[in-house]
Amino acid sequence: MTILTIVYDDRTNYYGGNIKADRGLSYFINGENLLFDAGRDGRILLDNMEALGVDVKSIKKIVISHDHEEHIGGLFDILELNSDIDVYGLSSFSPDILKKIKKMANLIIVEEPTYISEKIFSTGPLGKSIKEQSLAIKTGEGFLVLTGCAHSSIAQIFKIVSKKGNIFGIIGGVHSLDETDIFMLKNLPFLAFMHCTPIEEIEKISSNIKKIGVGNVIFL
């Protein structure tokens, strides 16, 4: 079983501890010891992780979708506490950010669809003006797609993931949608949207959307 804990998001419906919502995105994949994105504010990220029982020392891999502030802002706060980490980034990141990561951790540049572990692979950099990578987790029902902002479009992400197998759901931010994206999303059995997603627009697609935010735990 894969357990995904949302440790950073713009919204929360969790009230069981010292949890703070803030603009950004980050999730911890338990069992894989993998953090996907790192929110905007390192202090908020670390406090949320502590409240949710995620030990910063347990993190072995960090995948950053793209180098916008609300996705990479807490990265260096984590690396100051735990430098024994593989950071999966993109060559499109700013030179200063890449240089800083190299000084603090083991930087791995993702150039194409790449397996991060036996169950998880990166789509590699997608998009034109904003390069971004998404993740896909293999489950018993198919692949669950994890996005940062999906700037490249759902259609482009799904095109890559579908080459590996069936897609059963998506979780994460979706910055914008067109008719093709909506068509591809509306019949998926698992839909959970966060961060930059236009919620009012997405709710018109399906009544099957999970209400989630920072503090929620998803069992796959």
From TrEMBL:
Listed CDD domains: DHPS-like_MBL-fold
PANTHER family cross-referenced by the UniProt entry: METALLO-BETA-LACTAMASE SUPERFAMILY PROTEIN, METALLO-BETA-LACTAMASE SUPERFAMILY PROTEIN (AFU_ORTHOLOGUE AFUA_3G07630)
Listed InterPro entries: DHPS-like_MBL-fold, Metallo-B-lactamas, Metallo-beta-lactamase_dom, RibonucZ/Hydroxyglut_hydro
Molecular function GO labels: hydrolase activity; transferase activity
Protein name in the entry: MBL fold metallo-hydrolase
Pfam family, one: Lactamase_B
Keywords associated with the record: Hydrolase
Gene3D superfamilies: Ribonuclease Z/Hydroxyacylglutathione hydrolase-like
Domain Metallo-beta-lactamase: 23-81
